[in-house]
Amino acid sequence: MSIITEEEDGRELVLGYFGPGEFVGELGLFIESDHREVILRTRSTCELAEIGHERLYDLLLTRLSLDAPKLLYAIGAQISRRLLDTSRKAGRLAFLDVTDRIVRALHDLAKEPEAMSHPQGTQLRVSRQELSRLVGCSREMAGRVLKKLQADGKLHARGKTVVLYGTR
């Protein structure tokens, strides 16, 4: 599942991905608001469970009271990981050029569970549009950078398939 922020003009930036066992909406535990700052978009079939703020709070005070410290620690750890990922992304946007951002994004994707082992490295399935949303550039720029990286022998890109050489 992609977590996305969108500008008023429709441009999108992918902030990250959620995988199996992760949770969303954890800020609602601490900040009550009907307004959501991000968009969630599934990348494959997902099964989701939902619990409201009041219900979870009541459970943490009653039936789950013994497990509350562990649950809150898990929530805090996930928020911390996401904050770290967001800080890295902000630094990359501020200090790296598009080529370096794309290279780093591809290496990050190579660590995701969906990445597949390949005899020459790691095979990724990512469109140029998705890559552009990850690094904050146009789809055309992402395509030009992939073409250059392929010419430089760093990867092979065809359609939505990218083989990142020398990884795994």
UniProtKB/TrEMBL annotation:
Residues 1-60 form the Cyclic nucleotide-binding domain. Its main location: cytoplasm. Residues 96-168 form the HTH crp-type domain. It is found in: Cytoplasm. One of its GO terms (cellular component) is cytosol. Pfam families: cNMP_binding (PF00027), Crp (PF00325). The keyword Coiled coil does not apply. Homodimer. This is CRP-like protein Clp.
